Amino acid sequence: MRSLPLLCLSLLLCLSTASAREAAPPVFDVHVHLRDGETSLQAFEADARAAGIELAGLGAMWFGGPHQALAGDPADIRSRNDGVIALAARHPEVVPIGTVHPYDGQAALDELERIAARGVKVLKLHAHTQRFDVADPRVLALVRKAGELGVAVLMDNANIVAGDSENLFNLALRAQDTTFIFAHTGGLNFRFWNILPLARTADGIDMGNVYFDISATLLLMADSPIEDEFLWTLRNVGIDHVILGSDHPQISLAMTLEAFDRLDLSDEEKAAIRFGNARRLFGLDSP
Ligand SMILES: [Zn+2]
Question: Measured in angstroms, how far is the CA atom of residue 243 from the centroid of ligand 1?
């Protein structure tokens, strides 16, 4: 007779663990390229629904693939930025990500100020595809301005350009009032970022302004010979500074989550990376 309540208790525990596992926490995807505005957004969200993903929101950019934001045509960049701002106005789950080209100088600074006033909280810059040098003083001026305006700067960090992580480190050091999100966490050169806990031991260096998105890179890491090193890196930079991203449409969110679930992270760490950190950084509501 004694064993019955015990059995019930353990059954209840099992059931509640199973339902907790099924109800995975919501996910915010910070790295989504929408090549065709509304149509692309509908397709992205339909894919997420079909994969059973509870989507808390997405950071949406208009450029990438066939659309590039090159120097010399700020009017084109302006109208495309307006497109993603309009999309976000119709869809509260969309965090609009704008861009400018640092070499457009004053026009870039003016456009940044204009889109910040229209609610853009993230600026994306891509040194490789936009063909600029991260060490150029116009980049520093631009990202400092972003910091003044409360706009975070998402920068490609796939290490396609030589010295990528080193240049980004110096940029973040010189613009400590600007929040950065380094996309792809350095790619296969992710080990570089283990310098952060050492850098923080220096006087006056905090580097708490540096976040990472683990898009694309994490696909190679799950169950790889270097997975442990990658997770060690994420813990060294701070799990509270790591955000999930897919790089859709190159890589789907479903593929990303399938790899992410295989990483040997705790449930608490996974929840923070899936949504908690983005919610805090962007001031998002729960879905
Ligand atoms: Zn991308």
Answer: 14
